[in-house]
Design a protein that fits this description.
This protein is of the alpha/beta class. The protein has eleven helices and seven strands. 45% of the residues lie in helices and 15% in strands. Strands 1-3-2-4-5-6-7 form a seven-stranded mixed beta sheet, with helices on both faces. Helix 1 runs antiparallel to helix 7 and helix 5 runs antiparallel to helix 6. The longest helix has 16 residues. The chain starts with a strand and ends in a 7-residue tail after the last helix. The model has no long low-confidence stretch (mean pLDDT 93).
Length: 269
């Protein structure tokens, strides 16, 4: 399914398993001044692969920007998949914006744990341990257990220890049912992908937005990694995994500046 989130200057296709409603709720309104975001909800379920996801992105570009190229915009694992789409379909992808995305799938679990151990503040660790213990003690699948899972996960995904509850509730309410079979299938397939080769073959401009407090994809993930030749990494100091929600104005300004500097060209060459 493809939907248009907002009107802007450059078309951007976003692979979003969480659904269009969440994207509408999460993206800053000012982003519409610079890009038109078209949402693609992936399919494939347990048969999903990296190539199939890249193909869905390519097909969406051909639908929404016929005869032209577009930006691919991805959050978390979908930012890394966006890079795979750029490598596989260079004739269609004019640039990539990846938020909270690392240079490989699945993420490096050891590096993520080391980043948490070294950088998570004591209050964050204490709260995480409290919720993790309560989760383990709760009845499996109960509302209590899911509450503690969500609260523990929040400590890895959001910069503020006590984020705005109304904003969190808005995002939770907008989130669609994620096809976990799709996620697991993509991760399994991605573990066999030669990501350094994929990234080295990306020829379009790439903006990677990372959060200083991201404990899912550490802000130093790209240091020492094979990178696309035209890569810009921006670290947001008061963000974790979702900079466009946590620092919306700064994120929009970064995108606008990158678009100007990269001189994104949507005409097919």
């Amino acid at each position: 399914m493809t939907g248009v989130v907002a009107l802007g200057a450059v078309d951007a296709v976003m692979l979003a398993p969480v659904g269009e409603a969440w994207v509408r709720a999460a993206l800053p309104e000012r982003l519409a001044e610079h890009v038109t975001v078209h949402v693609v909800e992936p399919s494939g379920g347990a048969g999903a692969t990296v190539d199939l996801a890249a193909g869905e992105i390519a097909a969406a570009i051909e639908r929404v920007a016929p005869g032209r190229r577009a930006i691919v915009f991805g959050h978390s694992m979908n930012g890394t998949l966006s890079l795979a789409a750029a490598a596989k379909h260079p004739e269609l992808v004019a640039g990539v914006i990846a938020v909270g995305s690392g240079p490989s799938l699945p993420p490096d679990a050891e590096a993520t744990k080391a980043h948490w151990d070294a950088n998570a503040e004591p209050a964050r660790k204490a709260r995480f341990d409290e919720h993790a213990s309560a989760y383990a003690a709760a009845v499996a699948g109960s509302p209590e257990q899911m509450h503690h899972w969500r609260m523990a996960d929040r400590l890895r995904r959001w910069h503020e220890l006590d984020p705005d509850e109304a904003r969190m509730a808005q995002l939770d309410a907008a989130e669609g049912a994620i096809d976990m079979a799709w996620v697991q299938a993509v991760f399994a397939d991605a573990s066999n992908v030669d990501w350094p080769s994929v990234l080295a073959s990306v020829r379009c401009p790439v903006l990677v937005a990372l959060g200083r407090s991201d404990f899912l994809v550490p802000c130093d993930s790209w240091e020492g990694a094979t990178a696309p030749p035209d890569l810009t990494v921006r670290v947001f100091e008061r963000s974790s995994h979702t900079a466009f929600v946590e620092e919306p104005d700064g994120f929009v300004d970064a995108v606008a500046g990158w678009l100007r500097a990269a001189a994104i060209e949507t005409e097919k060459t």
